[in-house]
Amino acid sequence: MRLVVTYDISKDKIRNRVFRILEGYGAWKQYSIFELEITDVQRVQMEEKIRGVIGPHDRVRVYELCTRCVGKITDLGEQSPESLSNVV
């Protein structure tokens, strides 16, 4: 499944931990946005890891993209990285 994950985390230490978790599953697109191509099992694992580090005032949103939606992605301006690393 293709996911887009965004986060809004104020503390650097926690934000860096979430960044490292997401980096293990997919491609950093810009600032607080990752694009992932992962399995259902990997999604559960990733979400559990994130839940384990974020605080009550942090926000992480996961958007699942359908095949039709993925085909309609448009990049304007500088192209973001195309390679998706699935290192877990």
Automatic annotation (TrEMBL):
<dbReference type="GO" id="GO:0046872">
    <property type="term" value="F:metal ion binding"/>
</dbReference>
<keyword id="KW-0255">Endonuclease</keyword>
<protein>
    <recommendedName>
        <fullName>CRISPR-associated endoribonuclease Cas2</fullName>
        <ecNumber>3.1.-.-</ecNumber>
    </recommendedName>
</protein>
<comment type="subunit">
    <text>Homodimer, forms a heterotetramer with a Cas1 homodimer.</text>
</comment>
<dbReference type="GO" id="GO:0016787">
    <property type="term" value="F:hydrolase activity"/>
</dbReference>
<comment type="similarity">
    <text>Belongs to the CRISPR-associated endoribonuclease Cas2 protein family.</text>
</comment>
<dbReference type="InterPro" id="IPR021127">
    <property type="entry name" value="CRISPR_associated_Cas2"/>
</dbReference>
<keyword id="KW-0051">Antiviral defense</keyword>
<keyword id="KW-0460">Magnesium</keyword>
<dbReference type="Pfam" id="PF09827">
    <property type="entry name" value="CRISPR_Cas2"/>
</dbReference>
<keyword id="KW-0378">Hydrolase</keyword>
<dbReference type="InterPro" id="IPR019199">
    <property type="entry name" value="Virulence_VapD/CRISPR_Cas2"/>
</dbReference>
<dbReference type="GO" id="GO:0004521">
    <property type="term" value="F:RNA endonuclease activity"/>
</dbReference>
<feature type="binding site">
    <location>
        <position position="8"/>
    </location>
    <ligand>
        <name>Mg(2+)</name>
    </ligand>
</feature>
<keyword id="KW-0540">Nuclease</keyword>
<comment type="function">
    <text>CRISPR (clustered regularly interspaced short palindromic repeat), is an adaptive immune system that provides protection against mobile genetic elements (viruses, transposable elements and conjugative plasmids). CRISPR clusters contain sequences complementary to antecedent mobile elements and target invading nucleic acids. CRISPR clusters are transcribed and processed into CRISPR RNA (crRNA). Functions as a ssRNA-specific endoribonuclease. Involved in the integration of spacer DNA into the CRISPR cassette.</text>
</comment>
<dbReference type="GO" id="GO:0051607">
    <property type="term" value="P:defense response to virus"/>
</dbReference>
<dbReference type="GO" id="GO:0043571">
    <property type="term" value="P:maintenance of CRISPR repeat elements"/>
</dbReference>
<keyword id="KW-0479">Metal-binding</keyword>
